[in-house]
Design goal:
Blueprint (H helix, E strand, L loop, with lengths): L6 H17 L6 H10 L7 H8 L2 H17 L5 H9 L4 H12 L22 H16 L7 H10 L3 H7 L5 H9 L8
Helix pairs in contact: 1-2, 1-8, 2-8, 3-8, 4-9, 7-8, 8-10
């Protein structure tokens, strides 16, 4: 499937692996894909970077990174999941505080820092694989021959979870990205 990816989409996938390696993660997660996609905003134009920039990406990238870090501290729980647990009387913030008090800040993040570097092939998590499959399906549905970084962005926004929630908090939804990329008028990407 990787041969069907555009140069930009390949950069996102390899960037996600690099983010996982830098963080000491054993698997490439959905959040690593999002971080790699956000890195495109600093480089040359691509369809996903055009969509993100059109939706104010330069203004909120750091906020997204911080929100991903907070979700990682919560053990990967989205804010919606934390709110649902709060409705059941479970205070996730209190649990995180207690775990971090006993085991150190970031203990629930799953970071392996201080435990030696893990080397070798980093497999993609089930969620990250799902994003790649969704990107393929979106490209096929749009009758695009290649899977571009815009398809990865659309896949990230169409899948429930931390990445979609954090993007939606900044106005980046499946609908808004679709409108920018494929909509009528001046918002249309070339």
């Amino acid at each position: 499937m990787f041969e069907r990816f555009t140069k930009e989409a390949r950069a996102v996938v390899t960037g996600a692996v690099e983010h996982a390696e830098r963080g000491g993660a054993q698997t490439v997660e959905v959040e690593h894909l999002l971080l790699a996609l956000l890195a495109l905003l600093d480089g040359e134009g691509s369809r996903a970077s055009f969509a993100l920039a059109s939706l104010g990406g330069g203004e909120w990238v750091e906020s997204v990174r911080q929100a991903l870090g907070e979700a990682r501290r919560r053990g990967g729980l989205s804010q919606a999941e934390s709110d649902a647990l709060a409705g059941l009387g479970i205070d996730v913030a209190e649990i995180v505080a207690r775990v971090e008090e006993a085991h150190g800040v970031g203990a629930m993040a799953g970071d392996r820092k201080g435990k030696g570097r893990w080397s070798g092939h980093r497999p993609f998590s089930r969620g990250a694989k799902d994003v790649l499959v969704r990107a393929l399906r979106i490209a096929v549905a749009r009758r695009d021959r290649r899977i571009g970084d815009e398809h990865l962005l659309l896949a990230l926004t169409s899948r429930p979870g931390v990445a979609a929630e954090v993007l939606a908090d900044h106005g980046v939804t499946h609908e808004s990205v679709t409108r920018v990329l494929y909509g009528e008028g001046e918002a249309k990407a070339g």
